[in-house]
Amino acid sequence: xxxxxxxxxxxxLTFLAGLSTxxxxxxxxxxxxxxxxxxxxxxxxxxxxxxYVSFVELLPKSVITVGQFTGVVxxxxxxxxxxxIDMIIPxxxxxxxxxxxxxxxxxxxxxTLLRTGLFTAFAIAVHNFPExxxxxxxxxxxxxxxxxxxLAIAIHNIPEGISVSVPIFYATGDRKKAFRxxxxxxxxxxxxxxxxxxxxxxxxxxxxxxxxxxxxxxIMVYISxxxxxxxxxxxxxxxxxxxxxxxxxxLMAASLLIL
Length: 259
Hints:
It is a single chain. The longest helix has 31 residues. The protein has one domain. The protein is globular, with a radius of gyration of 18 Å. It is mainly α. A two-stranded antiparallel ribbon has the order 1-2. Helix 2 runs antiparallel to helix 5 and helix 5 runs antiparallel to helix 6. Helices cover 81% and strands 4% of the residues. The chain contains 8 helices and 2 strands.
């Protein structure tokens, strides 16, 4: 394969891996009658996905390359940065509204879910950025290995798409908006490949990329503990939250085993 064809193929692999986030976001279209138990499950599921990938994949990979001290420092820097952003973004003054459901049920929907969904989209977009660089770089050096990595990333991007779309759908009732934000989070993956190819490739190093992994892990852990899990328990389905959390971890574990 010629170099130009290999570059195009590497971009295509990265783009398809990123688009798989949109597959997960399609779950919003299957929720015909939103109920709080679905929301509790989905938020717990999202937290399980993010915490598992942070502590099992992102942080360990970072520590192996940059050392435990640097990895831990960058991890907590990620937590502090997202905590600072959390503090300067004001809560809605009227955080709750009520939506009348077709069957007569009244579902209390928290508008802060939109904020939670957007935070999750941000974390996943930042997470997808180095994945795009990784997929692109690997495909340039080894097409077969690039295909394997792109497939594995595509599989574990699906639950990440669910993590973004469900809170936004419950906050807005807008399936298209839920899909759109999830889709945009996935586009960070091919964007990472483009920026890596055009600008950053001469400056990138394994240490820089590995530090970014620890940074993203800190962001994801904070969002899961501060936003997702408290909101999941707010709706009164504690066992459902735990079930969602465990299944989220299990699905992410299964996807990572392929990599």
